[in-house]
Hints:
This protein is an alpha+beta fold. The protein contains 4 helices and 14 strands. Strands 3-6-9-10-11-12 form a 6-stranded mixed β-sheet. A 4-stranded mixed β-sheet has the order 5-4-8-7, with no helix packed on it. It has a two-stranded antiparallel sheet with strand order 1-2. Helix 2 (48-63) packs antiparallel against helix 4 (192-198). It is globular.
Amino acid sequence: MSAAAVEHPYDSERNELLRAAKRISEQLPGHRVEILEGNISVSPPADGPHADALTTLMLPFLAAGLHGSESRVLQATGVWLPTGPADYAIPDLAVVDADYRDHEVESSCYEPACFRLVVEVTSSNHSNDLKTKVRTYAQAKIPVYVIVDRKNGRVHLLTDPIGDGYDHHTLYAPAQQLTLPDSIGAKVTLDAGELLEAGGCPADGTG
């Protein structure tokens, strides 16, 4: 006689969270639904300047050849996180290994080891980008995290994840440029002022 399968409490919590996130996605088209540290996070559709900043960000990556045979540049692609039973985030932009499709976990989310860099452009949920995702991306060991902080008019570059943070965290004002680590696969320099201006921040960086 075979024994009936018993669902572990961990699996039950995980499945319940995933089902709830899926229901919310279906009920709120255009919203971004993530599960961060065991909590469902819902972000409304972003504004035009947010999209403008993302396009401005993509151009240097494409010019450097990062969307090719070794790596790809992707928007709004899920990364599975180790911080909870069903945790996943959907960064605004990412540079991933070209074979990322071979590393899907579930729900169109991929293993964090595929991600060379993630980028967030802040919106109404800026505290997630500036605090929660710093912890979760670091614990996932994503090597480079860039935040275009439209609220405070600056760009953050975080590198070298350690524990629930990053060993190096540098802020860039609108007049400055930031060079990303070569580990992403190419030499890329970003203009903080150009990114913030595209994102709707005043040129003086007052937010």
